[in-house]
Automatic annotation (TrEMBL):
Transmembrane segments: 26-44, 80-100, 106-127, 179-201, 237-258, 265-287, 349-371, 396-413, 425-443, 469-487, 499-520
Organism: Eucalyptus grandis
Membrane topology qualifier: Multi-pass membrane protein
GO MF, one example: oligopeptide transmembrane transporter activity
Protein name (Swiss-Prot/TrEMBL): Uncharacterized protein
Amino acid sequence: MWWPANLVQVSLFRALHEEEVRPKGGLMRLQFFLIVLISSFAYYVVPNYLFPSITALSFVCWIWKDSVTAQQIGSGRRGLGIGSFALDWATVAAFIGSPLATPGFALINISIGFFLMLYVLIPIAYWTNAFEAKRFPIISSHVFDANGGKYNVGLVLNETTFQFNQQGYDDYSKVHLSIFFAFAYGLSFATLAATISHVALFHGRTIWQQTQAAFRDKFDDVHTRLMKKNYDAVPQWWFYSLWLIMIGLAMVACEGFGGQLQLPYWGVILAIGVVLFFMLPIGVITATTNQQFGLNVISELIVGYMYPGRPLANVVFKTYSYVSMVQAITFLSDFKLGHYMKIPPKSMFIVQLVGTVVASSVYFSTAWWLLTSVDNICDPSKLPMGSPWTCPGDDVFYNASIIWGVVGPLRMFGRLGVYAKMNYFFLFGILAPVPVWILSRMFPEKKWIRLINMPIIISGSPSMPPGTAVNNICWLTVGIFFNVYVYRRYKSWWVRHNYILSAGLDAGVAFMAILCYYTLQIRDINGMRWWGLDLDDHCPLAGCPTAAGIKVGDCPIFH
């Protein structure tokens, strides 16, 4: 298992540090990297500051300005994104990472899932009015009441205890979702179930054999043998000590401060148990496809049933499980990078620990500073035109806290909820990899069958929400062009430049984003006021309902 994302960093480090003779008529890898970095840096001022609208160009909306259906089909931000595209690397890589680091077979699997979900499942469900879908936008990460308006969580939440108010809920409305958001949750159920099934079927024997070999100190991997031969391993007590200390501090945080976080100590233990259970299957998928599935939905589901009506407990439990998984996978990935670069394991461990402490301190300080210094942060309706502080990820996080924490899964996906049928996706996910595995056993000479990855296909649109159709369309287009077409037609160029190109594009965007913020945006100087400054695709009707008699904002009323 090669951890594809590490190849970008390995290629960059080699370009920076290895001596290289310039090929005749070509460029050294360092020269190529610098050219890409400077070009990306210079260009990103356009989508980031001067012309943000090119992050989602939706021509269908411009042609049919008064048609709700056309804008639902053509909007790249709030619709199906047909005909929508972007001229911005940040739009491509913002939510799923660089497509240039994802293997071609994984990109093809994702493309199949994305097409089936967004252009088959969602249109059929919406235009047949499944779950009363037409009363709400076709794609939205918000929550709605029965009349199609934004859900007023204050009516169902006790402001004193910060817990669910049953009487207010009975007097108000059940929580409703856009058809896309509902199926996104259903497919999340299926994805995790398929991950367990897929890894057990396709990698179970290998995992068992490698586990036995590890206990006997026998390793087939050449990088592992070289590391064992030349460096001392990290003592196990380092890991156990750090693990126990962090668990203890998490319990203190939950039980202390007057219990404001609502989560008891056993919630931390349960969160760690969830991580331990999913760590191996998700790690295998990440190490082979560069796609990492989160534990956010399954953790919300578990604590939502066990500790309902407590939104803070729900988000804290989700954070401990989801972030712990992400950090653990990142930790493993970095150790694999250490294998590739032959970095002593002890040095890698210490650097990761120091980096985590520094980064978490900086993140917390920055978040605190932004929340206290940026007016109307995370409220796009009140922010000045061109402001970058729209917080799409935090918006999804907040709405998820309403779905799983305030109202709870029993009233959403259980017998009391509107979306109880979504639970069938668990069964679908468990069974989906089985036919592929059977075919791979029946036709072992057909190597391409083993490349069919049902967890990846089922995940469909891995970044949505908070990502949008235009993010996925551009990501897949760029990825397939380079990692399928260029890889097959110009393999020597791909081997030499593909990962360097990815690193240069990422670095240029990052440096320009920092420069723009500290020189202009920190002073609320957000560019010249014109229609292109709006961080939108100018499809205002894409978020409108189409059910008869529903009145929402400036949307037309259907009869």
